[in-house]
Design goal:
By secondary structure, the protein is an alpha/beta fold. It has nine helices and nine strands. The longest helix is centred in the last third of the chain and has 15 residues. The structure holds BIS(adenosine)-5'-pentaphosphate (AP5) and magnesium ion.
Amino acid sequence: MNILFLGAPGSGKGTQSKKVETEFNIPQISTGDLLRAETSSGSEMGQELKKIMASGRFVSDDIVLELVSKKIKSEECKKGFILDGFPRNLSQASSLDSLLNNIGISLEYVFLIDVPKDLILKRCVGRITCDTCGKIENEYFSNFREGDKCGDGVFVKRADDNEETVTNRLEVYAEQTQPIIDFYIEKGILHRIVGGEDGPARLTSEILSIINS
Ligand code: AP5
Ligand code: MG
């Protein structure tokens, strides 16, 4: 089962990917997480990526395509995968098509998480993520705070979750990512999941019922 989550920054792609990962035991491939791992490696490329991501711009297609392609071809993705944050523009969508064609597989479900813009800022600015297990929480909607323990890890904030960068990320999303919605509508595999004030659980049950039906 090969799944893709599309949606604006802070729409809940990571949150829902982790639920589906647990439910079906297939790995989440988050290009944001893979790139953040690279930035903390201290390499020269990592330093460059850090600057790009802190501004809210996209990293080059070549870099993300290489990361994704290595993962998709790996043993851990034999039973399927959940793409989160890739593709993000038409060129990446077409590269993904070629990659999947070459290995004889295809995407089965594309879930677009559609959340009103006015909810996004609070979600990003309040987001905290465990530096060890990747659990995602929010300071506004839970009792967890930055610096709190999560098992063996600690909740941390992302460098791109400030108001200015989130505003830039939203602009880049509207310009570059929204056009790929039509690309997947035409393929007949896009499901629009409308999110709002209600928490993540309702969305998870809608997603699981589509997959299970
Ligand atoms: P990435 O890490 O993918 O960031 P993003 O796309 O901006 O998405 P987010 O991770 O911010 O949001 P999300 O949808 O996962 O929301 P989450 O579940 O955490 O990419 C970061 C950067 O890397 C990019 O800007 C770019 O520079 C680079 N990059 C990555 N991929 C690339 C690519 N393919 N090409 C080029 N560059 C690339 O939820 C957010 C918050 O809301 C959390 O606090 C959560 O608890 C809360 N929440 C979630 N769902 C709900 C709900 N239903 N109700 C209430 N709260 C909720
Ligand atoms: Mg995410």
